[in-house]
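Bug #77: duplicate submission created two jobs. Keeping one. Sequence:
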Amino acid sequence: MTEVLRYAAFTDRPDGGNPAGVVLDASALDDAEMQRIAADVGYSETAFVTAADGDALDLRYFSPLAEVPFCGHATIATGVAWGERRGPGLLRLTTRAGMVELSVGDGVAALVSVAPRTEPLDDLDELLAALGWSADDLDPGLPPRVAFAGAFHPVVAAASSERLADLDYDFDRLGALMAARDWTTVQLVYREGPAEFRARDPFPPGGVVEDPATGAAAAAFGGYLRELGLIEVPATVTIRQGIELGRPSLLTVEIPSEGGIRVSGAAVAI
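Kept job's structure:
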């Protein structure tokens, strides 16, 4: 029988952070079986180690509805679960998005994303309509873009904490737009300080109204800040997420002057 572990990532408490399923030995599973397990687990993502050779792992990710190319919180959860059984170290992960380095410590892990990039957000009007936002709700200091660091995430910044707190969107309309554009989550942010942000991430393509911690979006956001010159690099920023869901999460994002973005956090077994 396949052993499915359950971890909460980007938190040090089981009822915080973002829950992820982890299968450390999925070598005998086919795509349909991994999809079924992810649906049964019911978390936003489950990670599957489909092959392992020393510190080199092949890792795949499934939401309850579909495979996704990369998932940050399930990567952190996998790292901590692996480290608890094999000890700390540096893992090299082959994902559908590319090679990802994962440093594993005692109850914590840090991933280094694939090279990030940003693109124009051509569907802003439709995105705002699905969210129920207007152009006046946006922070002009953080312009809308589509950011990538393994998966695509539109970045939309709220001008006020009240706008971010009042999230009541059209699930079907937003889900259809995201499916058409291959967006994984929408990274809605509010800048609380020079290097402190709040985030909320709608995730209808995964069948989830909102993700309580999104490591892939955090990495993409770090690349967005660097590429648009919105922060002096190298820099470290923190993202607080999941508060409105009762699952507070803390993501630490290290932004070097070039290369992949480093996202770190704790994880704990549920």
